[in-house]
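Box 3.1 A note on notation
Throughout this textbook, protein chains are presented in two layers. The first layer is the amino acid sequence; the second is a C-alpha cell string describing backbone geometry. Keep the layers aligned when reading.
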Amino acid sequence: MLDVSEKSRFRWPIRVYYEDTDAGGVVYHASYLRFFERARTEFLRALGFEQDELRCQYGILFAVRSMQIEYVKAVRFNDALSVSAEVEQLKSASLNFKQLATRQDNELVCEARVRVVCLAAESFRPTAIPDFLLQRLKHDL
C-alpha cells in the first residue's frame, strides 16, 4: 500500500530476500542503496511520473550525486521493512531526500541523505527540472 502524506513523506514496503543478505545472513550494506532507489522511483511514480517517460518525452533523467548513510540495526532475511522518501530540499536542478528504512514497528534500521540531480539525457550534464515536475514537487513539500 502506498502512503503519500501532505509533507511528501512516501513509504514503500520492502521484503528482504536471500539475495539481499551476506554470508552471515544479514542485509548486505549495498542492498540498502537498492531499497532507497526503489522508494525514490516509487515516489515519482506515485506523483504520476515514470522515469523512462521523463527520459523519452522530456530528455531528462535523475542520478545520485551524493549520499550519506548510517547503518543503525541489523536486518535479516525475510524481515519486512518500510522505506521512506521525503524531499527535504528542492532546487532548480536537484533534490535532497531524507530516507529511512524501518521495521514495521517503526524501529529505525538505516538512514540516508541523498542528493539527486537532474541531467540532460543526451549529454549527462546538469539541467533544470522541468517546470511541470518542479511545481508538482513543490506542491507536495
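The two ends are 21 Å apart (CA to CA). The chain has one domain: 3-139.
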